[in-house]
């Protein structure tokens, strides 16, 4: 595919990112079972259930807007106790929820997982990436689109905070809060394309 066609495809994706998709039972049912890098089968099953829970909560309690679940996979019953943050169509403040905040700031060596949905169909936003970099105790962050597609970013053993932060700064160079959505989206895609260089696993 030519560079021009690539850019057209990215433009169409960026346009769709502002078009809210309402969650259906079909989307929840089709959330896939994913073999997360380094996770056990049992942990992978928990992740699938949490991804479905994110969409179900969004559909039933938040008008298909963003919802985040924060879970400690090392807990005795991860599915029985997790933090929930309700957001708007375009963002969610994960740390606004007391339990989510407690899990993120108090856990040092276990797997802390943050999952949230995106009402549109894009992958990680710059805000998602920045949140992961700023909170080193989070092992994996997951985005589930309102259509049931799953993407995740996970630290591997080669992860380097300083290099990750520098890469992020490079990708957002020249951007401002009022920059067009397409430019923000492309900056996030650039980071994701290069994230393996700093020890992040993206799927």
Please outline the major beta sheet: 6 strands, mixed
Secondary-structure element order, as H and E? Answer: HHHEEHEHEEHHE
Number of strands: 6
How far from one another are the termini? 22 Å
| Beta-strand content estimate | 15-25%
- Number of helices in the DSSP assignment: 7
Residue share in helices?
Answer: 40-55%
Q: Strands of the biggest beta sheet: in what spatial order? A: 2-1-3-4-5-6
Structural class, by secondary structure, is: alpha+beta
Shape: globular
Task: Kindly report the oligomeric state of this protein.
Answer: single chain
Radius of gyration: 16 Å
Contiguous runs where pLDDT drops below 50 for at least 5 residues? 1-8
Q: How confident overall, as mean pLDDT?
A: 87
List keywords for this structure.
disordered N terminus, 203 residues, 6-stranded mixed β-sheet, alpha+beta, 41% helix
């Amino acid at each position: 595919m030519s560079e021009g066609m690539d850019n057209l495809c990215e433009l169409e994706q960026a346009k769709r990112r502002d078009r809210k998709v309402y969650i259906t039972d079909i989307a929840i049912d089709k959330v896939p079972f994913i073999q997360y890098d380094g996770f056990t089968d049992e942990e992978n099953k928990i992740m699938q259930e949490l991804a479905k829970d994110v969409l179900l909560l969004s559909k039933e309690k938040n008008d298909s807007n963003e919802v985040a679940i924060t879970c400690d996979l090392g807990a005795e019953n991860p599915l029985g106790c997790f933090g929930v943050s309700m957001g708007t169509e375009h963002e969610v403040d994960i740390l606004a929820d007391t339990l989510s905040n407690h899990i993120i700031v108090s856990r040092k060596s276990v797997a802390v997982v943050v999952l949230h949905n995106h009402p549109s169909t894009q992958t990680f936003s710059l805000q998602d990436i920045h949140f992961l970099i700023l909170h080193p105790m989070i092992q994996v962050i997951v985005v589930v689109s309102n259509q049931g597609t799953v993407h995740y970013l996970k630290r591997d053993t080669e992860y380097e905070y300083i290099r990750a932060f520098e890469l992020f700064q490079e990708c957002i160079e020249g951007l401002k809060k009022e920059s067009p959505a397409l430019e923000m989206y492309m900056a996030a895609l650039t980071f994701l394309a290069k994230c393996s260089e700093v020890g992040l696993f993206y799927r």
